[in-house]
Design the sequence.
């Protein structure tokens, strides 16, 4: 039981990160029907920016807490600017193009961002600075750290704030109207370009926060880290019903728990043939299963093509 509880805790932490990244995918898809495959690289750049800024400030003698806050702020601002630039330069000119065109462009932008990050930060793994104290807790034989607790709490608060933004503000109303029917929303006075740009900016800010969480949790970063993280978060969005905010949150948590339980028990289930390092296969097994049996996801709805 203690092993089971330990894996549930690990899954909640990992799932909270997946959920934040998945929200970036689902916001953009819900509004304009685009899968932004470059979103994982936005998360990666957010992590590397935090390493550069916070690391430099700590070396200069600044207190760790202030350096970490400065690194997080810089990460969010850079990622927001990057998200806005992607929408304005890469996707807006292709808004009326066939759907395959922006999809290929998104994959191309992912490759471009990876290579730019490699040129700027190098090929080697980078060590993330220690921004939070390592305090351990124990519950029913399972152990978790203050970092894990903060990740879950901050993720939950952020997701609650996003729901409040979407359902309680004028911007959220404009987003929902645009997602429902962009042409009618435009006739009613909604600035479609600003709404779509806002979705990219908000999603990128969430990605930056997730990137800092990943760096704090694993304490390393790499220019290719966004690829697998992005695929898993996309799987979480599909699992929950891409385009549905609550679905993306639930899908992220479920995927994290499934992956953690799989990593904990795959050795026993296969007689030692497979180890915990095969945990990545569970994300793709889930993706295949969802596409085969419930393509719309847990909370997704079957919809026809927009007129």
Sequence:
């Amino acid at each position: 039981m203690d092993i089971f509880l330990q894996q549930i805790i690990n899954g909640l932490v990992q799932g909270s990160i997946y959920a934040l990244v998945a929200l970036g995918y689902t916001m953009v898809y819900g509004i304009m029907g685009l899968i932004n495959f470059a979103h994982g690289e936005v998360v990666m750049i957010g992590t590397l920016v935090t390493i550069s800024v916070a690391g430099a400030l700590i070396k200069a003698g600044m207190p760790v807490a202030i350096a970490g806050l400065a690194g997080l702020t810089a990460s969010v601002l850079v990622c927001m600017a990057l998200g806005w630039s992607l929408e304005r330069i890469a996707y807006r000119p292709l808004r009326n193009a066939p759907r395959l065109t922006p999809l290929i462009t998104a994959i191309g932008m992912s490759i471009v961002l990876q290579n730019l990050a490699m040129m700027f930060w190098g090929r080697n793994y980078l060590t993330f600075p220690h921004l939070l104290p390592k305090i351990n807790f124990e519950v029913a034989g399972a152990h978790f750290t203050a970092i894990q607790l903060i990740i879950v709490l901050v993720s939950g608060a952020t997701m609650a704030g996003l729901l409040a933004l979407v359902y309680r503000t004028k911007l959220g109303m404009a987003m929902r109207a645009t997602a429902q029917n962009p042409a009618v929303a435009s006739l009613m006075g909604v600035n479609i370009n600003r709404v779509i740009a806002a979705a990219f900016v908000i999603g990128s800010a969430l990605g930056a926060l997730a990137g800092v969480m990943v760096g704090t949790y694993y304490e390393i970063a790499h220019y290719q880290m966004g690829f697998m993280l992005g695929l898993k978060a996309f799987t979480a969005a599909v699992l929950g019903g891409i385009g549905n905010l609550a679905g993306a949150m639930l899908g992220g948590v479920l995927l994290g728990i499934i992956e953690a339980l799989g990593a904990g028990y795959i050795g026993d289930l296969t007689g030692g043939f497979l180890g915990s390092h095969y945990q990545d296969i569970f994300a793709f097994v889930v993706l295949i299963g969802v596409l085969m049996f419930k393509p719309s996801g847990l909370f997704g709805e079957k919809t026809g093509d927009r007129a």
Notes: The mean pLDDT is 89. The radius of gyration is 19 Å.
